[in-house]
Structures are given as C-alpha cells and as structure tokens.
Amino acid sequence: MPHPRSVLFNVYWAAWTSLFLAPLVVFAASGSPARPIRAATRLWARGILFGLRHLVGLTYVEEGRDRIPREPCLIVANHQSAWETLAFLILVPDVAIVAKRELIAIPVVGWFLRRSPMIIIDRANGTQALRTMIDESRAAVAAGRSVLIFPEGTRGTIGDPVQFKRGVELLYGRLGLRVLPVAVNSGLYWPSGSRTRAGTVVVSYLDALAPGLPSADFLRGTEGAIDRELDRWRPAELGLQMP
Fold first, then answer.
1. Beta pairing partners, 202
2. What's the pTM?
3. What is the pLDDT of residues 14-36, one digit of tens each?
4. For residues 61 and 163, what is the distance between their CA atoms, to the nearest angstrom?
5. Which residues have C-beta within 8 Å of that of residue 118, sequence separation ≥ 6?
6. What's the rounded Cα separation, in Å, for the pair 175 and 115?
7. Which segments within 78-214 are labelled E, that is strand?
8. What parts of the sequence cross the membrane (predicted)?
9. Which domains, ranges and CATH numbers included, belong to the chain?
10. Would you tell me how many other CB atoms lie within 10 Å of the CB of residue 122?
11. Chain-centre distance of CA 155, in angstroms?
C-alpha cells in the first residue's frame, strides 16, 4: 500500500503545479519570455523541494560546492531519480539541462521546462539528437550558462554500476569546457517507480577535470569517479531493502 506521506506529497505536487497554469497562459500570450519563465520554473522546483521536506521528510545537503567552476562548465551527474532533474534547477540556477523528449510531455511542467530552456533531445533520432545536443549546448555556453547531462541516459538504482551512453565524450570534446562530476544518492529515497522516503539526499561535487583529455582519461575521471563515490552509500541501499 502507498505510504500516506507519499500520497500526500503526490496531491501537493498536483495542486502546486496547477497554480502555474495561469502564469503559463500569461507567458504564452507574452511571447514566452525566457528569463521570467526560468524564474517561474525555479519557483516551481523550490515548491516541490519544500513539499518533500515538510510532507515526506526528504531533505538534501551539498558536499564540495566550492569545486563548482565559476565559469560555464559541463556538469556530468549520475541519474537515479526525478529528484536531481528538478533540484539542479535550484542548485545551479542558470543551468541548461540535457533532457529526453518524454519530460516535456508532463502537463504544465513540461511547457515550462521546454522554455527554461532545457536542451531537449529525441534519442530515437540518433545522429540528429547528437547534433541538436551539441548545437544547443554551444548556444547555452555562449549565453554564459553551464550544461548538465545525465550520461547514463535513464534512471538506475544506486547499486547499478555507472555506465555512460555514447555521446558524452563527443559533447566534452566539442565544448572544450572543464568538467564537474557529481554523484547523488537520491535513489535511496525516491527510487524510480516507488514512493518517496524520508532521509537526506547527498549531492557530492567531485574534482573538476580540465578540457582536452583523451576519452579514456575523461571517462576515468567522470564515470569512474562517480561510481567510486556511490560506494559510500551502496551498503545503505542493502539496509533499506531488508524487511
């Protein structure tokens, strides 16, 4: 049976999101101005994190925030939950997130996310998806924004080894930016297809990598570093799975 707190949060999510329908109409009639839409999207995300904290008991902490480069960078993070997709709108306020097309199908929220703007790709398009990702990432960087990508391509569990899909090395090579690996343990508390749990999500910013590294060094410094960081929490996952 669904936990009462999780059900209450789902009701809150729907009610909070519905409040943004009126601003959506106003923004659409005003030509979809990017800056106010980004501000509204961040407000929505803050409201969701507020609901998680006060209704579910799910909070978060950041470790190593001083490692975030001051200039635009490529942020590479593991993906376990819906939590990090919305939380990064707050953690890195002007970030351009590479996201799959299915995300913008969410009523109301999808409209705002598409125009924040995120970098929306259709993975079924193969080469065209890569071209779109690179071109729109370059435009975001030119506008002074960092780019965030979840290179695993889909959500996994904290126990899964971190394995990037093809394409992130190409993005790294084309952008010529420093890379910030980030490990999150959100799968402990909001696993895919399951209820939310009380706890504290840890966002761990790891050592940044220089641009221009060979692919093997890039993967070792991102994929490998994130995987090793997740070892901190993998024993906790086994504890949560026990009756």
1. 61
2. 0.90
3. 999 999 999 999 999 999 998 89
4. 25
5. 96, 97, 98, 99, 103, 104
6. 22
7. 96-100, 119-121, 147-149, 179-184, 199-205
8. 12-31
9. 4-241 (3.40.1130)
10. 12
11. 11
